[in-house]
Specification:
Length: 132
């Protein structure tokens, strides 16, 4: 019987574009893919309300401001090995994928005819709410 520290594999299927982004981000942080995924999963878990004990025996607490630990982890990851970064560089580092996610979400909502863009009106609006 193995110890709790024995390594095991986990297999996940993701789109190729996502893996490419993860690989690039891991390289930027000078981490292996395994280290990167392990740290991202742990950071993501901190943003959820768990009541069960974690595998290492620690109980996750319910934070009054969910996602704060995630931001702290992302900030530390951005700073790791980077030396000094300006405010703008830090902001870009912790929000690196928000523009891609926003664009993808806007495209999806437009395809579903839930929102539309009007250059004449200078932005996006819900379909049916644009006359208000």
């Amino acid at each position: 019987m193995g110890s709790d520290d024995d390594r095991v594999s986990v297999k996940v299927h993701i789109p190729r574009w996502q893996k490419e982004k993860w690989v690039a981000h891991a390289e930027q942080l000078d981490m292996t893919q395994s280290e990167f995924l392990r740290s991202m999963v742990q950071a993501g878990r901190r943003g959820f309300d768990f009541t069960e004990s974690d595998a290492d025996g620690e109980t996750d607490s319910t934070d009054a401001t969910p996602g704060v630990d995630d931001l702290e982890m992302r900030l530390l990851d951005v700073l790791r090995g980077a030396g000094y970064l300006t405010w703008d560089e830090l902001l870009a580092g912790v929000t690196d994928d928000i523009e891609d996610r926003l664009e993808h979400t806007l495209d999806t909502l437009q395809e579903k005819n839930e929102i539309k863009y009007s250059g004449r009106n200078g932005g996006y609006t819900l379909i049916g709410d644009s006359d208000q």
